[in-house]
Amino acid sequence: MSMHIISPGMLTTVQDLGRCGYMASGFQQSGAMDRFAAEAANLLVDNSEKDGVLEMTMLGVKVYFDEDNVIAITGAEFTPTVTDFETGEVTELPINRAIRIKKGDVLDCGSAKSGLRGYLAVAGGFDIAPVMGSMSTNLKCKTGGFEGRKLRAGDVIPLRHPQGWLFSMVGRVYEPEKRTDGTVTIHVIPGPQDDYFSDKGKNTFYSEVYSVTADSDRMGIKLDGAPVESIDGVDIISDGIVAGSVQIPSAGKPIIMMADRQTTGGYAKIATVITSDLPLLAQLRPGGTLRFKKVDLQYAVKRIKADKKALKKLQTNILRADTFTSDS
Fold first, then answer.
1. By percentage, how much of the chain surpasses pLDDT 90?
2. Parallel, antiparallel, or unpaired: how do β-strands 184-190 and 289-294 relate?
3. For 30, 78, 109, 237, which has the most beta carbons within 10 A of its beta carbon?
4. Residue 167 to residues 66, 98, 313, Cα–Cα distance (Å)
């Protein structure tokens, strides 16, 4: 019971919600860059929201299964198709809903029309042994996921409990908020070292439109734009870094630390991106633009509660649809 990789895409790794509790020992958290999309994909196929998924960057995987299965693709706007094993007929597939895939049929996840990272969940999950409590791939340490690396053509990913059908297939639909084109507003809480920066520097940080550079990755999103002025340099005694920490190195150009960030850093952090906006950052392509907006902790908590409510609503809708639908 396996998924066979015909083509691995540009950068595809196994990820879940991250390797929590080990940063004090120097191990990066890793995990899905767009955690919300990963959780939604798992819920669509009846997995735990913490289960492993494939994170696909720009170009998706092409695979086939040796058993019937149900899959879901969320995140970036990918263009999946399935090729019937017997007839060769190619059918376009929707995203953000559960889809049946027959044994031998070829699933081609296509490329992202918008956004950057897509998530493929399979019903029953991947049969991959966790490392320190997580399936997430840490590419730098070559740990976790599938052999600690990105996927390659010819890989065979074992499946735990493939499911050829799930109750309420019609109701397994997720309707994400539509992304708007143009500059994205990223909400941040000031600090913890915003006192290292001059009033001019802070004004620059909150008024400038920054662009994502091509050397951004899972470790950090590097920005280009007007430099942020410090009062007397940005070097600090190294301290802990969280997802969303906005470091200002000596050149003054912000770097937003993401899933594969280092555990500590020695540059002052002018602000911290709220958890609910990290998925927006995960979907920004090189050349995409953003601006920062200052908010308080109460706003951040309100947004997290709204995210949890949205995922709970997805679960409820699936159960409600099963009440009114005998089969689909």
1. 88
2. parallel
3. 30
4. 22, 11, 17
Encoded tokens for 70: 């149900």
Give the mean model confidence (pLDDT) for residues 16-32. 92
Closest CA to 72 of 36, 35, 104, 109: 109
* Residue 157: CB atoms within 10 Å: 21
Which stretches of 45-124 are DSSP H helices?
A: none
Domains, the chain, ordered by start: 2-158 (no CATH), 184-295 (2.40.100.10)
| pLDDT surpassing 90 at residue 24 | no
- 164, 244 in Cβ contact below 8 A? no
Burial of 135 (0-12, 13-18, 19+ CB in 10 A): buried
233: left (phi over 0), alpha (psi -120 to 50) or beta: left
Q: Is 21 left (phi over 0), alpha (psi -120 to 50) or beta?
A: left
What residue has token string 């992202």? Answer: 112
One-letter amino acid of 14: V
What pLDDT, on a 0 to 100 scale, did the predictor assign at position 26? 86
Q: How confident is the model at residue 322 (pLDDT cuts 50, 70, 90)?
A: low
Nearest to 164 by CA among 100, 73, 220, 76: 100
Residue 124: name the closest of 52, 191, 34 by CA: 52
Gap between the Cα atoms of 267 and 250, Å rounded: 8
